[in-house]
Design brief:
The complex is a heterodimer of chains A (306) and B (78). Chain A is of the alpha/beta class and 306 residues long. Chain A is built from 6 helices and 17 strands. The chains are: A alpha/beta (306), B alpha+beta (78).
Chain lengths: 306, 78
Protein backbone atom coordinates (compact mmCIF):
# COMPACT_ATOMS: atom_id res chain seq x y z
CA UNK A 1 0.00 0.00 0.00
CA UNK A 2 1.37 3.37 -1.03
CA UNK A 3 0.66 6.61 0.80
CA UNK A 4 0.45 8.41 -2.53
CA UNK A 5 0.24 7.51 -6.20
CA UNK A 6 1.13 10.30 -8.61
CA UNK A 7 -0.40 10.01 -12.07
CA UNK A 8 1.47 11.79 -14.88
CA UNK A 9 4.99 12.73 -15.96
CA UNK A 10 4.51 16.34 -17.04
CA UNK A 11 5.47 19.37 -14.95
CA UNK A 12 2.65 18.64 -12.46
CA UNK A 13 3.49 14.97 -11.92
CA UNK A 14 7.24 15.60 -11.69
CA UNK A 15 6.86 18.51 -9.24
CA UNK A 16 4.56 16.31 -7.14
CA UNK A 17 7.14 13.50 -7.24
CA UNK A 18 10.02 15.71 -6.15
CA UNK A 19 8.05 17.19 -3.25
CA UNK A 20 6.65 13.81 -2.20
CA UNK A 21 10.21 12.44 -2.03
CA UNK A 22 11.38 15.42 0.01
CA UNK A 23 8.49 14.91 2.44
CA UNK A 24 9.45 11.20 2.69
CA UNK A 25 5.99 10.16 1.53
CA UNK A 26 5.89 6.53 0.34
CA UNK A 27 4.99 7.35 -3.24
CA UNK A 28 4.81 5.88 -6.72
CA UNK A 29 4.79 7.89 -9.95
CA UNK A 30 2.98 6.35 -12.92
CA UNK A 31 3.96 8.13 -16.14
CA UNK A 32 3.38 7.04 -19.70
CA UNK A 33 6.18 9.42 -20.72
CA UNK A 34 7.81 12.61 -19.49
CA UNK A 35 7.53 16.29 -20.30
CA UNK A 36 3.84 16.72 -20.99
CA UNK A 37 2.53 18.45 -24.08
CA UNK A 38 5.45 20.90 -24.36
CA UNK A 39 7.72 18.08 -25.50
CA UNK A 40 7.07 18.95 -29.16
CA UNK A 41 7.84 22.61 -28.66
CA UNK A 42 10.85 23.90 -30.61
CA UNK A 43 11.64 26.40 -27.88
CA UNK A 44 10.19 27.09 -24.43
CA UNK A 45 11.07 30.58 -23.31
CA UNK A 46 8.85 31.04 -20.29
CA UNK A 47 9.93 28.19 -18.00
CA UNK A 48 11.29 30.18 -15.09
CA UNK A 49 14.99 29.68 -14.51
CA UNK A 50 15.78 28.75 -18.11
CA UNK A 51 16.06 31.50 -20.72
CA UNK A 52 15.27 29.07 -23.51
CA UNK A 53 15.18 25.33 -23.88
CA UNK A 54 13.71 22.86 -26.34
CA UNK A 55 10.74 20.70 -25.46
CA UNK A 56 13.10 17.74 -25.70
CA UNK A 57 15.47 19.17 -23.08
CA UNK A 58 12.55 20.27 -20.94
CA UNK A 59 11.27 16.68 -20.87
CA UNK A 60 14.73 15.29 -20.17
CA UNK A 61 15.34 17.75 -17.32
CA UNK A 62 12.04 16.79 -15.72
CA UNK A 63 12.77 13.08 -16.01
CA UNK A 64 16.29 13.46 -14.61
CA UNK A 65 15.07 15.55 -11.69
CA UNK A 66 12.46 12.94 -10.87
CA UNK A 67 14.86 10.01 -11.16
CA UNK A 68 17.35 11.77 -8.87
CA UNK A 69 14.93 11.39 -5.94
CA UNK A 70 15.81 8.67 -3.47
CA UNK A 71 13.13 6.22 -2.37
CA UNK A 72 10.66 7.40 -4.99
CA UNK A 73 9.25 4.60 -7.12
CA UNK A 74 8.64 5.27 -10.82
CA UNK A 75 6.60 3.16 -13.20
CA UNK A 76 7.04 4.51 -16.72
CA UNK A 77 5.55 3.40 -20.03
CA UNK A 78 2.28 2.52 -18.34
CA UNK A 79 -1.02 4.35 -17.97
CA UNK A 80 -3.84 4.41 -15.45
CA UNK A 81 -7.11 3.11 -16.87
CA UNK A 82 -9.28 2.84 -13.76
CA UNK A 83 -9.57 4.16 -10.24
CA UNK A 84 -11.81 2.46 -7.71
CA UNK A 85 -12.67 3.82 -4.29
CA UNK A 86 -12.76 1.33 -1.41
CA UNK A 87 -13.55 1.93 2.27
CA UNK A 88 -10.33 3.76 3.14
CA UNK A 89 -8.04 3.29 0.18
CA UNK A 90 -8.05 3.41 -3.62
CA UNK A 91 -7.40 0.68 -6.16
CA UNK A 92 -5.66 1.72 -9.37
CA UNK A 93 -5.58 -0.40 -12.52
CA UNK A 94 -3.07 0.20 -15.33
CA UNK A 95 -3.16 -0.52 -19.06
CA UNK A 96 -0.54 -3.24 -18.59
CA UNK A 97 -2.73 -5.03 -16.09
CA UNK A 98 -1.15 -3.97 -12.80
CA UNK A 99 -3.23 -3.16 -9.72
CA UNK A 100 -1.96 -0.78 -7.09
CA UNK A 101 -3.30 0.14 -3.65
CA UNK A 102 -2.88 3.63 -2.27
CA UNK A 103 -4.19 5.92 0.46
CA UNK A 104 -4.17 9.05 -1.70
CA UNK A 105 -3.94 9.98 -5.38
CA UNK A 106 -2.50 12.99 -7.15
CA UNK A 107 -3.82 13.42 -10.70
CA UNK A 108 -1.53 15.21 -13.13
CA UNK A 109 -2.55 13.35 -16.26
CA UNK A 110 -2.79 16.52 -18.34
CA UNK A 111 -4.69 16.76 -21.58
CA UNK A 112 -4.51 15.42 -25.10
CA UNK A 113 -5.21 16.99 -28.49
CA UNK A 114 -8.73 17.37 -29.60
CA UNK A 115 -9.31 15.84 -33.03
CA UNK A 116 -11.83 16.91 -35.68
CA UNK A 117 -13.66 13.59 -35.69
CA UNK A 118 -14.57 13.88 -39.38
CA UNK A 119 -14.26 11.37 -42.24
CA UNK A 120 -10.71 11.05 -43.55
CA UNK A 121 -8.97 12.36 -40.45
CA UNK A 122 -7.94 8.95 -39.11
CA UNK A 123 -7.29 7.35 -42.50
CA UNK A 124 -4.88 10.11 -43.52
CA UNK A 125 -3.19 10.59 -40.16
CA UNK A 126 0.49 11.08 -41.06
CA UNK A 127 -0.48 11.05 -44.74
CA UNK A 128 -1.29 14.71 -44.91
CA UNK A 129 -3.26 15.07 -41.70
CA UNK A 130 -0.75 16.44 -39.22
CA UNK A 131 -0.69 17.59 -35.62
CA UNK A 132 2.81 19.05 -35.31
CA UNK A 133 3.76 21.88 -37.65
CA UNK A 134 7.06 22.34 -35.82
CA UNK A 135 7.97 18.77 -36.77
CA UNK A 136 6.46 18.40 -40.21
CA UNK A 137 6.33 21.86 -41.86
CA UNK A 138 9.43 21.26 -44.08
CA UNK A 139 7.79 18.22 -45.68
CA UNK A 140 5.16 20.50 -47.19
CA UNK A 141 7.70 22.56 -49.11
CA UNK A 142 6.02 24.13 -52.17
CA UNK A 143 2.70 22.53 -51.32
CA UNK A 144 -0.68 24.01 -50.42
CA UNK A 145 -1.85 23.29 -46.88
CA UNK A 146 -4.63 24.16 -44.45
CA UNK A 147 -4.49 24.83 -40.73
CA UNK A 148 -7.70 24.26 -38.77
CA UNK A 149 -8.02 26.39 -35.64
CA UNK A 150 -7.49 30.09 -35.02
CA UNK A 151 -6.17 29.91 -31.45
CA UNK A 152 -2.51 30.39 -30.56
CA UNK A 153 -1.52 26.88 -31.58
CA UNK A 154 -3.17 27.34 -34.97
CA UNK A 155 -1.53 30.70 -35.57
CA UNK A 156 1.87 29.30 -34.57
CA UNK A 157 1.39 26.42 -36.98
CA UNK A 158 0.73 28.90 -39.77
CA UNK A 159 3.89 30.79 -38.76
CA UNK A 160 5.92 27.55 -38.85
CA UNK A 161 4.54 26.74 -42.32
CA UNK A 162 5.17 30.13 -43.96
CA UNK A 163 8.85 29.45 -44.82
CA UNK A 164 7.92 26.19 -46.61
CA UNK A 165 4.38 25.90 -47.94
CA UNK A 166 3.32 27.79 -51.06
CA UNK A 167 -0.18 28.59 -49.77
CA UNK A 168 -1.68 28.33 -46.29
CA UNK A 169 -5.40 28.48 -45.61
CA UNK A 170 -6.26 29.17 -41.98
CA UNK A 171 -9.75 27.96 -41.11
CA UNK A 172 -11.54 29.36 -38.11
CA UNK A 173 -14.90 28.19 -36.82
CA UNK A 174 -16.10 31.56 -35.56
CA UNK A 175 -16.00 35.07 -37.04
CA UNK A 176 -12.88 36.07 -35.12
CA UNK A 177 -9.44 34.58 -34.52
CA UNK A 178 -8.75 33.90 -30.84
CA UNK A 179 -4.95 33.82 -30.89
CA UNK A 180 -2.54 36.57 -29.81
CA UNK A 181 -2.79 39.83 -31.74
CA UNK A 182 0.97 39.92 -32.31
CA UNK A 183 1.05 36.52 -34.00
CA UNK A 184 -2.05 37.44 -36.02
CA UNK A 185 -0.24 40.50 -37.30
CA UNK A 186 2.77 38.42 -38.32
CA UNK A 187 0.81 35.87 -40.29
CA UNK A 188 -1.47 38.46 -41.94
CA UNK A 189 1.68 40.08 -43.30
CA UNK A 190 2.43 37.00 -45.41
CA UNK A 191 0.97 36.87 -48.90
CA UNK A 192 0.85 33.10 -48.64
CA UNK A 193 -1.78 33.16 -45.91
CA UNK A 194 -5.51 33.23 -46.55
CA UNK A 195 -7.79 33.36 -43.52
CA UNK A 196 -11.21 31.74 -43.88
CA UNK A 197 -13.65 32.59 -41.10
CA UNK A 198 -16.92 30.86 -40.17
CA UNK A 199 -15.64 27.60 -41.61
CA UNK A 200 -16.50 24.16 -40.27
CA UNK A 201 -14.36 21.36 -41.69
CA UNK A 202 -16.47 18.44 -42.92
CA UNK A 203 -14.30 15.87 -44.63
CA UNK A 204 -10.70 15.22 -45.63
CA UNK A 205 -10.15 13.18 -48.77
CA UNK A 206 -7.39 11.85 -50.96
CA UNK A 207 -5.91 8.78 -52.53
CA UNK A 208 -2.58 7.62 -51.09
CA UNK A 209 -2.36 10.87 -49.20
CA UNK A 210 -4.50 13.97 -48.68
CA UNK A 211 -5.55 15.84 -51.83
CA UNK A 212 -8.19 18.16 -50.39
CA UNK A 213 -10.96 18.82 -47.89
CA UNK A 214 -14.52 20.05 -47.69
CA UNK A 215 -15.91 22.66 -45.36
CA UNK A 216 -19.15 24.52 -44.73
CA UNK A 217 -19.34 28.28 -44.69
CA UNK A 218 -21.68 28.71 -41.70
CA UNK A 219 -22.69 32.22 -42.76
CA UNK A 220 -24.05 31.22 -46.14
CA UNK A 221 -24.46 27.48 -45.59
CA UNK A 222 -22.46 26.84 -48.75
CA UNK A 223 -20.37 23.67 -49.07
CA UNK A 224 -16.89 24.41 -50.29
CA UNK A 225 -13.92 22.41 -51.42
CA UNK A 226 -10.20 23.18 -51.36
CA UNK A 227 -7.30 21.26 -52.85
CA UNK A 228 -4.43 20.86 -50.35
CA UNK A 229 -1.72 18.28 -49.57
CA UNK A 230 -1.83 18.80 -45.83
CA UNK A 231 -4.29 19.60 -43.06
CA UNK A 232 -2.82 20.65 -39.70
CA UNK A 233 -5.30 20.26 -36.85
CA UNK A 234 -4.95 22.65 -33.90
CA UNK A 235 -8.34 22.85 -32.22
CA UNK A 236 -7.45 22.66 -28.55
CA UNK A 237 -7.26 19.86 -26.05
CA UNK A 238 -9.29 17.46 -23.93
CA UNK A 239 -8.47 16.64 -20.30
CA UNK A 240 -7.35 13.06 -19.57
CA UNK A 241 -10.04 12.23 -17.03
CA UNK A 242 -11.64 9.11 -18.54
CA UNK A 243 -10.44 7.01 -15.60
CA UNK A 244 -12.03 9.44 -13.13
CA UNK A 245 -15.57 9.45 -14.55
CA UNK A 246 -18.03 8.63 -11.80
CA UNK A 247 -15.32 8.97 -9.15
CA UNK A 248 -14.75 12.73 -8.84
CA UNK A 249 -16.79 15.67 -10.05
CA UNK A 250 -15.91 16.91 -13.52
CA UNK A 251 -17.11 20.09 -15.23
CA UNK A 252 -18.73 20.35 -18.67
CA UNK A 253 -15.32 20.25 -20.32
CA UNK A 254 -14.44 17.03 -18.49
CA UNK A 255 -11.95 18.82 -16.23
CA UNK A 256 -11.56 17.83 -12.57
CA UNK A 257 -13.26 20.40 -10.35
CA UNK A 258 -10.79 21.29 -7.63
CA UNK A 259 -10.59 23.54 -4.58
CA UNK A 260 -8.05 26.09 -5.78
CA UNK A 261 -6.71 26.64 -2.27
CA UNK A 262 -5.69 23.03 -1.61
CA UNK A 263 -6.03 21.38 -5.07
CA UNK A 264 -8.33 18.71 -3.56
CA UNK A 265 -11.04 17.16 -5.72
CA UNK A 266 -14.69 16.64 -4.79
CA UNK A 267 -13.80 13.52 -2.78
CA UNK A 268 -11.28 13.23 0.06
CA UNK A 269 -8.08 11.45 -0.92
CA UNK A 270 -7.82 12.68 -4.53
CA UNK A 271 -5.99 15.85 -5.56
CA UNK A 272 -5.06 17.24 -8.95
CA UNK A 273 -3.11 19.97 -10.71
CA UNK A 274 -2.33 21.21 -14.19
CA UNK A 275 -4.25 20.90 -17.45
CA UNK A 276 -6.41 18.04 -16.19
CA UNK A 277 -8.09 20.39 -13.69
CA UNK A 278 -10.43 23.37 -14.04
CA UNK A 279 -7.49 25.74 -13.44
CA UNK A 280 -8.04 28.94 -15.42
CA UNK A 281 -4.55 29.18 -16.94
CA UNK A 282 -2.89 26.14 -18.49
CA UNK A 283 0.82 26.80 -18.04
CA UNK A 284 3.85 24.64 -17.19
CA UNK A 285 4.90 26.88 -14.28
CA UNK A 286 1.38 26.94 -12.85
CA UNK A 287 1.04 23.16 -13.16
CA UNK A 288 4.28 22.68 -11.22
CA UNK A 289 3.35 25.21 -8.53
CA UNK A 290 -0.18 23.88 -8.09
CA UNK A 291 1.15 20.32 -7.86
CA UNK A 292 3.39 21.39 -4.99
CA UNK A 293 0.42 22.97 -3.22
CA UNK A 294 -1.36 19.64 -3.62
CA UNK A 295 1.49 17.55 -2.21
CA UNK A 296 1.91 19.82 0.81
CA UNK A 297 -1.80 19.45 1.47
CA UNK A 298 -1.59 15.68 0.94
CA UNK A 299 1.27 15.58 3.47
CA UNK A 300 -0.91 17.37 6.05
CA UNK A 301 -3.77 14.97 5.31
CA UNK A 302 -1.58 11.87 5.72
CA UNK A 303 -0.20 13.16 9.05
CA UNK A 304 -3.67 13.93 10.39
CA UNK A 305 -4.77 10.40 9.50
CA UNK A 306 -1.93 8.76 11.45
CA UNK B 1 23.94 -5.55 -38.50
CA UNK B 2 20.60 -4.03 -39.36
CA UNK B 3 20.28 -1.37 -42.03
CA UNK B 4 18.56 1.58 -40.36
CA UNK B 5 17.44 4.74 -42.12
CA UNK B 6 15.76 7.64 -40.40
CA UNK B 7 14.00 10.43 -42.26
CA UNK B 8 13.88 13.46 -40.00
CA UNK B 9 13.63 17.23 -39.65
CA UNK B 10 15.89 19.22 -37.31
CA UNK B 11 12.92 20.56 -35.32
CA UNK B 12 11.24 17.23 -34.66
CA UNK B 13 11.47 16.02 -31.07
CA UNK B 14 10.39 12.47 -31.79
CA UNK B 15 13.21 12.20 -34.36
CA UNK B 16 15.67 13.18 -31.64
CA UNK B 17 14.16 10.62 -29.29
CA UNK B 18 14.48 7.92 -31.95
CA UNK B 19 18.12 8.82 -32.63
CA UNK B 20 18.93 8.77 -28.90
CA UNK B 21 17.24 5.38 -28.71
CA UNK B 22 19.45 3.97 -31.51
CA UNK B 23 22.57 5.44 -29.92
CA UNK B 24 21.66 3.90 -26.58
CA UNK B 25 21.44 0.48 -28.23
CA UNK B 26 24.62 1.03 -30.29
CA UNK B 27 22.65 0.73 -33.51
CA UNK B 28 24.14 2.72 -36.38
CA UNK B 29 21.75 4.56 -38.65
CA UNK B 30 21.87 6.88 -41.61
CA UNK B 31 19.91 10.08 -41.23
CA UNK B 32 18.16 11.93 -44.04
CA UNK B 33 17.18 15.48 -43.24
CA UNK B 34 14.06 15.92 -45.37
CA UNK B 35 13.92 19.65 -44.58
CA UNK B 36 17.03 20.15 -46.75
CA UNK B 37 17.37 17.05 -48.88
CA UNK B 38 14.68 17.26 -51.59
CA UNK B 39 15.52 13.83 -53.03
CA UNK B 40 15.22 12.16 -49.63
CA UNK B 41 11.90 13.90 -49.05
CA UNK B 42 10.54 12.60 -52.34
CA UNK B 43 11.87 9.12 -51.57
CA UNK B 44 10.19 9.14 -48.17
CA UNK B 45 6.85 10.34 -49.55
CA UNK B 46 6.86 7.95 -52.51
CA UNK B 47 8.00 4.92 -50.55
CA UNK B 48 5.75 5.32 -47.53
CA UNK B 49 3.14 7.97 -48.48
CA UNK B 50 4.04 9.47 -45.13
CA UNK B 51 4.01 13.22 -44.71
CA UNK B 52 5.17 13.23 -41.12
CA UNK B 53 8.48 12.52 -39.44
CA UNK B 54 10.16 10.48 -38.16
CA UNK B 55 9.85 7.71 -40.71
CA UNK B 56 12.20 4.88 -39.80
CA UNK B 57 13.20 2.06 -42.14
CA UNK B 58 14.76 -0.99 -40.48
CA UNK B 59 15.74 -3.58 -43.11
CA UNK B 60 12.77 -2.57 -45.25
CA UNK B 61 10.24 -2.54 -42.43
CA UNK B 62 8.81 0.97 -42.08
CA UNK B 63 7.94 2.56 -38.75
CA UNK B 64 6.11 5.85 -38.45
CA UNK B 65 6.68 8.04 -35.41
CA UNK B 66 8.68 7.05 -32.36
CA UNK B 67 7.21 4.03 -30.63
CA UNK B 68 9.82 2.71 -28.22
CA UNK B 69 8.36 -0.76 -27.70
CA UNK B 70 7.92 -1.35 -31.45
CA UNK B 71 11.52 -0.33 -32.13
CA UNK B 72 12.76 -2.49 -29.26
CA UNK B 73 11.07 -5.45 -30.92
CA UNK B 74 12.52 -4.59 -34.32
CA UNK B 75 16.04 -4.35 -32.91
CA UNK B 76 15.56 -7.39 -30.70
CA UNK B 77 16.47 -5.51 -27.52
CA UNK B 78 14.72 -4.82 -24.21
Amino acid sequence: MYDLVIIGGGPAGVAAGVYAARKKIKALVIAENFGGQSVVSAGIENWIGAKSLSGFDFARNLEEHLRAQEDLEIMDGDRVVRVQKNANYFLIATAQGKTIETKTIFVGSGSRRRTLGIPGEKEFNGKGVAYCATCDAPIFKNKDVAVVGGGNAGLESVRDLIPYASKIYLLNRSAELKGDALTQEKIRASEKVEIILNAVTKEIYGDNSVSGFKYTDTKTGAEKDLAVSGVFVEIGSLPNTDFLKGIVELNNFGEMIIDHKTQSSSIPGIWGAGDVTDVLYKQNNISAGDAIKAVLNINDYLHKKK
Amino acid sequence: MKNIKIYSTPTCVYCKMAKEFFKKHNATYTEHNVAEDDAAREEMINKTHQLGVPVIDIDGEVFVGFNRSELEKALGVK
